[in-house]
From TrEMBL:
This is SP-RING-type domain-containing protein. GO terms for biological process: protein sumoylation. PANTHER family: TONALLI, ISOFORM E, ZINC FINGER MIZ DOMAIN-CONTAINING PROTEIN. Keywords: Metal-binding, Zinc, Zinc-finger. GO terms for molecular function: SUMO ligase activity; zinc ion binding. It comes from Papaver somniferum (Opium poppy).
Length: 389
């Protein structure tokens, strides 16, 4: 088959807003989200992602369990935008909606705008089974962050939904809507879908941040790193960050997800920059360090809000081919003043010291320093973090 013919091939998983999945010889565009199998007509739909992937990227705490009304275009009638749809719950779906984590939701968005989230026409009015919709939140043209939950439905019969609104002469009338069964996810379930940075990529990122975009030839020898989550004010158990942030600090993943769920805003708590939800990743640089810390390690929150658990990996030999990493506590550190030390043989000369992360063991509680040094030692840190698993 020729390449041109492949583009015109009819796919079984076509779910276009034109509601014509069997349209002949129409160029199709596959949703660009990894794992999604839906196709849409290129001339009908301008977004890179299908409506359901857009909804899940906008709100990862709710995923689509079933499609009740497929994406449908609102048409103009008597100077109004009108969208109509009908659905009937199957026996399986009737059992699904009984569960508290499942909700019947109506959504609406622009199909020409690839940047906005859910958005509704001006003066929107919803009806379900010829009655005004009982909804939890009032609709407006600036409602970008949620779907509308349908509360009153006929579980045994056919349900009809109608969405009406005024066209906006400034922004156009390119709206589509649909109805789905959305399943609410817990923070722990969402965290399982967050991918981690590669260690090599994390090392490159750290070098660029510390050298301000340099090649890493001139490394910063001393850098203070905050290991307290700015949201929970406790130790970081699972370090996470947002792609694009130009800082070394991270935050706790579960604490961030809980905060984001309540505030409905994906914003870095460290630099206050806003990002989409798919920019959230696990910190590939701090993950080996945090995973190597003992569970009963003590944390001291100093005046500068810098903390450190008690852990001292020490090289048992200066021979580079026979390096042993041993976890031990600093015998000189008392229980009330615990510092983090991840360092090389202190007797090694300065040219061969592979100090990856270190805290000054003599530092007081208000001045805990973390050293990030020769990037060649980062490979050893990665090996140490792997062995600790």
């Amino acid at each position: 088959m020729l390449e041109k013919d492949k583009q015109l091939e009819i796919h079984r998983d076509v779910l276009c807003i034109c509601r014509r999945p069997s349209a002949v010889r129409v160029k199709q565009l596959k949703c660009q989200r990894e794992g999604c199998t839906l196709w849409l007509h290129q001339q009908c739909y301008r977004r890179k992602y299908c409506p359901y992937c857009c909804l899940e990227m906008l709100n990862p705490f709710c995923v689509t369990s079933a499609i009740l009304v497929p994406p449908t275009v609102l048409f103009e009638s008597d100077e109004k935008l009108v969208g109509r749809g009908k659905f009937r719950l199957t026996p399986t779906q009737q059992q699904m909606v009984v569960l508290p984590e499942n909700q019947i939701q109506m959504w609406c968005m622009r199909f020409e705008d690839d940047q906005s989230g859910t958005q509704w026409p001006l003066n929107s009015f919803l009806m379900v089974n010829e009655s005004p919709l009982a909804m939890e939140t009032a609709l407006s043209a600036s409602t970008h962050d949620h779907c509308i939950t349908i509360l009153d439905i006929e579980k045994q019969g056919t349900n009809s939904v109608v969405l009406m609104g005024d066209p906006d002469p400034k922004s156009g009338s390119d709206f589509c809507f649909g109805v789905r069964i959305g399943k609410q996810l817990s923070e722990e379930m969402v965290s399982q879908n967050i991918v981690a940075e590669s260690f090599e990529g994390a090392v490159d990122r750290c070098i660029k941040i510390l050298t301000k975009g340099g090649s890493g030839a001139d490394m910063i020898q001393l850098y203070k790193l905050n290991l307290v989550c700015p949201l929970s004010r406790s130790k970081v158990k699972c370090p996470a960050r947002l792609r694009g942030c130009q800082h070394m600090s991270s935050f706790d993943l579960i604490s961030f997800l809980k905060y984001t769920r309540s505030h409905k805003e994906w914003c870095c708590p460290i630099c206050n920059r806003k990002y989409p939800s798919f920019a959230l990743v696990l910190d590939g640089f701090l993950m080996p360090i945090v995973s190597a810390l003992p569970e009963n390690s003590a944390y001291v929150i100093a005046q500068e809000e810098v903390v450190g658990p008690e852990i001292v990996p020490i090289f048992s030999s200066s021979d580079e081919e026979n390096v042993d990493v041993v976890v031990s506590a600093d015998p000189l550190a008392n229980e009330e003043n615990v510092d983090v030390v991840v360092s090389a043989d202190p007797l090694a000369n300065e040219e061969n010291v592979d100090v990856v992360v270190s805290a000054d063991p003599l530092a007081d509680e208000g001045n805990v320093d973390v050293v990030v040094s020769d990037p060649l030692a980062l490979g050893l840190l990665s090996q140490y973090g792997t062995d600790s698993e």
